[in-house]
Structure formats: structure tokens, C-alpha cells
Design brief:
Blueprint (H helix, E strand, L loop, with lengths): L2 H21 L1 H5 L1 H92 L18 H10 L1 H26 L8 H34 L2
């Protein structure tokens, strides 16, 4: 039995004793004994009540301690989750930076080819070479993928610019694909030149935009 149960039992016994005392002639003749017994009962009741309060206080303290431990465990879990999120964020930034380092050389190569052909065609020296070199590399789609990750507007700009450069590639390959120089169509040269001029400023803007992305990502590390 718990102390609370004992307290209830003693109270019941005390009430019963009081009833017995009030109807017993012996206790009426010896009232000091009844008073003494009632005093002992009260002392026991107070003692049990005090002990019960101590138990309640200990129980509250234990519950409070358990709550603190749970809060501490929750805090540790939250800190671990925060560290995991930060690690994932850092890994994503590093991956993005590596992708930009792949993209920038591709754009540099396209710009160099564009300038090369603009120089030849602008100075009417297209017959100084016997074959066309591709302006657009096979991995140019990497630039499109990166552009799409940043914005739809940039992706559209890159796609349209690359379309112009591909048109120039196609015209040049057709022109130099004719082995007989007298039979080559100079309209194809003019078409390629126009496409390159239209793409020049847009390509330079795209390259500068990606260079800005790279500087921003690098500054975060």
C-alpha cells in the first residue's frame, strides 16, 4: 500500500475510534487516554501527509528532470539535422561550382571559334582555309543545362544564341563541303557571317553572366 492509502486508513480508523470513544463508558471515564490516542493519530496523519508531500515533490523533480533530458535530446537531434542540412548545402554548392568550371571553358572555346571566323569572314579571307572547323562543340548542351538551373530567361537566351551559331556552322560546312572552289556558294558565307554577328553580343553577355555565377559561388567557399 502507498502512503496515501495508509493515510486514508488511519483517517478511517481515527473516525471509528472517535465514535467508539464517544459511546464507551470506560473512555468517558478515562478521557486523557482518548485524548492521547487522538493526538497520536493526528501526529501519524500529519507525518504521513508530510512524507506524501515529499514523495510528490520527488516525483515532480523526477518528471522535471526527464523533461529536461528529453529537451536536451531533442536539441541534439535538431543540431544534428541542422548539421546535415548544412553539409548537403555545402555539397550542392561545391557541385554547382564544379559544373560552372566545366561550363566556362566550353563558352571560352565557342567564343574563340566565333572570333576566328568573324575575323576570316570580315576580312574576306574565307578562302584562306580549306575546311570548316566546328564552332559548336559536342558538349555544348552542358551550358544549356546550367542555364536552365538558373532561370528560364537565361535558358531561352542560350538556346537562341546557340541556334544562331549552329546555323553558322551548318552554312560553313556546306560551303567548304563543296570541293570545287568555283562552285562554292558565297551566299553561304554571307549567311554564316550574319549569324555570327547576331550571336556575338549575346554570346559575350552569356559568358559574362556565367563568369559572374562562378565568382559568386567561389566567394561562398
Amino acid at each position: 500500500m502507498t502512503r496515501t492509502h495508509w493515510l486514508i486508513v488511519i483517517c478511517i480508523i481515527s473516525v471509528l475510534a472517535a465514535l467508539i470513544f464517544s459511546h464507551s463508558s470506560w473512555f468517558k471515564q478515562n478521557e486523557h487516554v482518548a485524548v492521547w490516542l487522538e493526538g497520536v493519530a493526528l501526529i501519524v496523519i500529519f507525518a504521513l501527509d508530510y512524507i506524501n508531500r515529499l514523495d510528490d515533490s520527488e516525483e515532480h523533480e523526477r518528471q522535471h528532470q526527464e523533461m529536461l533530458e528529453q529537451l536536451q535530446a531533442a536539441k541534439k537531434q535538431a543540431d544534428a539535422s541542422s548539421d546535415s542540412v548544412q553539409l548537403l548545402k555545402t555539397q550542392a554548392q561545391e557541385h554547382q561550382l564544379r559544373e560552372l568550371w566545366r561550363t566556362l571553358p566550353i563558352l571560352d572555346g565557342i567564343q574563340n571559334q566565333m572570333r576566328y571566323w568573324l575575323g576570316l569572314l570580315g576580312e574576306n579571307r574565307w578562302n584562306a582555309v580549306d575546311s570548316a572547323t566546328a564552332i559548336m562543340p559536342v558538349d555544348s548542351s552542358t551550358v544549356l543545362v546550367q542555364a536552365a538551373r538558373h532561370s528560364n530567361e537565361l535558358w531561352i537566351n542560350v538556346r537562341e544564341t546557340f541556334r544562331m551559331l549552329s546555323n553558322a556552322d551548318f552554312a560553313l560546312s556546306r560551303y567548304y563541303g563543296e570541293e570545287s572552289v568555283p562552285h562554292r556558294q558565297e551566299d553561304l558565307i554571307r549567311e554564316a557571317h550574319a549569324s555570327l554577328r547576331n550571336a556575338e553580343s549575346r554570346l559575350n553577355e552569356i559568358a559574362e553572366t556565367f563568369a559572374g555565377f562562378e565568382r559568386t559561388e567561389r566567394s561562398r567557399h
